[in-house]
Design goal:
This protein folds into two domains: 129 residues; 99 residues, Orthogonal Bundle (Transferase(Phosphotransferase), domain 1). The chain contains four helices and 13 strands. Helix 2 packs across helix 4.
């Protein structure tokens, strides 16, 4: 991957920049982050994404465009504005660089294609494009399938790499046609060491998500998944 930086201006925000994979994108432009610019080559993501994610097609192939959007109570005041703390601290740039690192290590994550921010005084907006994984389904739709070993392996590999995921749920784990598990959406995630408490927190978050989408079936899957995860962790030296 050859990562380069380009300056952007978009709509009312003249100050902006993007990181992008120069091997996949030859013309960096703000239009890459505008779903409307893709025409019929953009399709809204139905599950998740907070109505701010689209499947898109461009010179880079197939990707997923996502605008960063807040949730919870704070979204009532501003759903897309974040406090400016510097370019390297923007949500898109941080997620792009984390995915770049994980993909280089061979971990099962989508490759980052581009990320951008647009600054307005003390706040900014941000977006990211990652490679779309072919023929995948979310774990939430596969509760009756024997996928726990693959999921446990992916999560254990992530944790052994010292990575913490901020929202490990049943829609952020995807299974492809070969049965391989992938982990997506690393917004607010970080690498550089993950404590036992943080690892347990990831598993608890996944358990709550599986129970929410599948009830007893979700809990049964999580029980098998957690046992497989412990075996995976025990088989890998620290």
């Amino acid at each position: 991957m050859r990562v380069e930086t380009a300056h952007l201006a978009w709509r009312e925000a003249p100050a902006g920049a993007m990181l992008y994979d120069a091997a996949r994108i030859s013309r960096p432009a703000a239009a890459l982050f505008d779903a409307g610019s893709y025409g019929d080559r953009a399709q809204a993501v139905a599950a998740g994404g907070r109505q701010a994610a689209w499947f898109v097609q461009g010179e880079f192939g197939e990707g997923v465009l996502r605008h960063y959007r807040r949730g919870g109570m704070v979204a009532r005041f501003s759903d897309r504005d974040y406090f400016w703390l510097g370019a390297d601290s923007t949500r898109g740039f941080k997620e792009f660089r984390l995915l770049e690192s994980l993909a280089a290590q061979g971990l099962p994550v989508p490759a980052p294609l581009a990320a951008a921010y647009w600054r307005q005084g003390l706040t900014y907006k941000a977006a990211i494009i990652v490679e779309r994984l072919p023929a995948v389904q979310p774990l939430a739709l596969l509760l009756d399938q024997p996928v726990w070993e693959a999921v446990a392996d992916a999560v254990a590999r992530m944790h052994h790499a010292g990575v913490w995921h901020a929202d490990l749920n049943a829609y952020n784990i995807l299974i492809d046609a070969t049965g391989k598990a992938w982990i997506i959406d690393f917004d607010r995630g970080h690498q550089g060491g993950v404590t036992a408490a943080a690892r347990a927190g990831n598993l608890r978050r996944l358990r709550r998500s599986l129970e929410k989408v599948g009830g007893t079936a979700g809990l049964a899957l999580h029980q098998k998944l957690e046992a497989a995860y412990r075996r995976c962790m025990a088989s890998r030296p620290d």
